[in-house]
Amino acid sequence: MKIGYARVSTEDQQLTFQLQALKEAGCKKIYQEKVSGDHGERKELGKMLENLRENDGIIVWRLDRLARSTQKLLEIADKIHQAGAHFRSISEPWADTISSAGRMVMTVFAGIAEFEKELIIERTSRGRHSAKERGVKFGRLSKLNPEQKNLASRLFSEGKSIKQIAKTLNVHSSTLYRNLEIQS
């Protein structure tokens, strides 16, 4: 069965054009929703993927209606493939996984996405390492400045309790344990 999927990002936008194109493409059932492809939960897309049967064909007007990133597109394409179905885009004729050329293009996309992911990881790692060498500290900022740490240390050595010091500095006792390296 040919199944359509139509999506617009906001309530103000209309699905009319997509619905017409999907009906002309022979879709017997069309899942439709008005939700952002980046941030919203796409319930209709989930229903469509759950109800796929072998040899079903998913048709979209454009690929960005199905997914907003190559990574997400590949994830969805894999779910479609796992169900024994295929998909195609009306506006991008090269995106048709029923043909060997379309499957090849998806394989190339997968390779590019994997390469891009590895480059990002490599650049991020290199940047983090370089920043550490320059003395940049990562993580949450300390609630105590150096003077407060010295005061807390002095008060602790004078016999004040962690609870008293925490109240004095207006911090939680766990902050003092973390900053003073005291065993609780």
From TrEMBL:
Domain Resolvase/invertase-type recombinase catalytic: 1-135
Kinase among keywords: no
InterPro entries: Homeodomain-like_sf, Recombinase_CS, Resolv_N, Resolvase-like_N_sf, Resolvase_HTH_dom, SSR_resolvase
A single GO molecular function term of this UniProt record: DNA binding
Highest taxon above the source species: Bacteria
Keywords of the record: DNA integration, DNA invertase, DNA recombination, DNA-binding
Active-site residues from the entry: 9 (o-(5'-phospho-dna)-serine intermediate)
UniProt cross-references to Pfam families, sorted A to Z: HTH_7, Resolvase
GO process terms (BP): DNA integration
SUPFAM superfamilies cross-referenced by the UniProt entry: Homeodomain-like (SSF46689), Resolvase-like (SSF53041)
PANTHER family given in the database record: DNA-INVERTASE FROM LAMBDOID PROPHAGE, RESOLVASE HOMOLOG YNEB
Homology family: Belongs to the site-specific recombinase resolvase family.
Entry protein name: Recombinase family protein
